Amino acid sequence: MRVAAAVTALLFLLVACGTGDSGLVPAPTGPVSTVAETTEHNPIDVMFLQMAVAHHKTGIEIVRLAKDKSVRTDVKTLASAIEVTQLSEVDSMLQWLHDWNQPESPGTEAQLHANHGGDHSTSPEAIATLAATGPGEFERAFLNLLIAHQHNAVEIAKFEREGGVNPQSKALAERIFQSRTGQISQMLGYLD
C-alpha cells in the first residue's frame, strides 16, 4: 500500500511540475510489482537490503540539497522524484527486513561491506563539500556526485540480481538497476 501511495505521489509530482520536453525519464506505468510476496530469503537478500537502505538514506540526503540551491527546473524535478522513490523503497526494504527478523544494519561498516565489493557509500565529507559549493558550481558538482552515487546503487542491485532468492527483493533490485541507469543517462545529458 505504501508503494502504491508513493507511486501516485511521484506521478502527481511529475504531472504537477510538468514534464513537457524536459527529457525526464518517464514514470513507470501499471502495477508497481506483480511479484507474490514471500518471506523466503538468503543472506544475500538480507545484505542487499541492509546495504541499499543505508545507500538510499545517503541518496535522500544528497537530493535534498538541490531544494534550496540554484539549479535548473529539470534537475530540481529529478531530485524531488528521486527523493519520493527512495523514501518509498526504504519503507519497503525496512518492512521486509522486519518481516524476516533481520536488523536494518549488520553492525560495523567492515561487516557491512566485507566480501561484497567494498564500500558503495558516498562519504559524509563529499556531501559536506557539495553542500558548501557555491551557486555557480553547485549544479555541476551535484550532478557529478549523484551520478557516482547512483552508479553505486546499480552495483548494489547487481549483487542482488546475481545471488538473491527473494522475489520481491530481486524485483526491487531490477527496478533500481533500470531506474538508476536511466537517471545516470539523464544526468549525463544535463552535463553536456
TrEMBL record:
Which organism encodes this protein?
Saccharothrix variisporea
Give residue ranges for domain DUF305.
Answer: 45-189
- Keyword Signal appears in the UniProt entry: yes
This protein's name: Uncharacterized protein (DUF305 family)
This protein's UniProt keywords: Signal
Q: Where is the signal peptide?
A: 1-18
Q: Which PROSITE patterns does the record cross-reference, listed alphabetically?
A: PROKAR_LIPOPROTEIN
The yes or no answer to whether the keyword Isomerase is present is no
| Chain positions covered by the region annotation Disordered | 104-123
Q: Which InterPro entries match?
A: DUF305_CopM-like, Ferritin-like
Lineage runs: Bacteria, Bacillati, Actinomycetota, Actinomycetes, Pseudonocardiales
